[in-house]
Amino acid sequence: MKRRRGGPEDTAVRRTRTGAHTKPPGRRPGPRLRPQESPPGEADPQAGYRAYDATDRGYGALGLAEEETAAQILLRGLIDDAGLCPPGPSAADPHPRPQGAGPASEYAPLRVVQAVERHRSDSIVGHPMLSHRMLCPASRWDDLLRRLDGSGPVEVGLVLDTDEGVAGVVPPRDPRVRVSHYETRARPDDLRLVAALFRSGDIGAAGRVVYFEPVREPGWLDAVDVLSGARPLGAKIRCGGPRPELVPGLREIGAFITACVERDVPFAATAGPPQAAGRIDPGTGAAQYGYLNLLLATAAVVEGDYDSVSDLLAGTDARWLARLARALDPATALRTRDLLTGYAARSTGDPVREAAALGLLGAWDV
Questions:
Q1: Domain limits for position 186
Q2: Domain containing 254 — which CATH number?
Q3: What is the DSSP letter of 185?
Q4: Model pTM greater than 0.70?
Q5: How far lies 125's CA from each of 29, 130, 366, in Å?
Q6: Does residue 232 fall inside a structural domain?
Q7: Helix (H), strand (E) at residue 280
Q8: Are 211 and 268 in contact (CB under 8 A)?
């Protein structure tokens, strides 16, 4: 599969909003300087790549760091552990699995004891591709606490899947858990007040990091506009699921990524398959977008190459996507991860094994 022109029309529509940072469609920028290079006669302003800051969920602080490849920059701390999460938008999903779908175990969340043991094992190994964050629905919070032994703090992204959580009520703090961020669903109108408070400074740095999954109804991408300038608030997009209607189509997800890049809105991907490249689930017909699909589509918008977004999201050839990831400019990779902060997968082992087989891990593959 070759990279070609021909992107989704609705991504082009999103570029026309006044004040957005835009680039001409279909044009690639000129050659970029790598971060470790400087123009002739000038001192290097960065003296290396940005250092990865786990507390900031990305490459947030300038500083000296061991040189990493573009692929390593894309993959470091990418995979969030979503083993506890159901595949639907909430724990109380009333819809049955479709006839002909895969085995129930493919969609059923892990038991809490399994998830905790896996998290402990992953923490001991400490592979750089894993974020070592466990996503936990609020409906399973008490079960999680009962399984923790206090041997060390567990980093958790709390998914507010209960009525109380959606209303803004979160479980009480526990010293055995460090909540890194919150995730919830919302309509654009529900976000306007909280986003305005962040922009005004009334909440400011003391506010919680929250990723909002827009309810996909007419005008749902307005949520991205509302969140512009309101970091640490961000957006969330679904990349897989047991039913086609749960997952944005190719044009929808392309428009979402384009809007987030142009509005400087960080976003997290959820319910993704544990593979680098996506596919159409043969049992359900639901689209699935792999982690390289999301990363490279975001990188294309960062570089102004809007016309390649559709092909990159639709790509099913993992080796082709891996070649593009290895050839990416490190500065583009840094900006990509500043925007795409995490990719939640139900397996923490499969993404690492496939990335190693694709030759993306470099010195990490030891």
A1: 9-14+66-88+106-361
A2: 3.20.20
A3: E
A4: yes
A5: 40, 10, 12
A6: yes
A7: strand 279-280
A8: yes
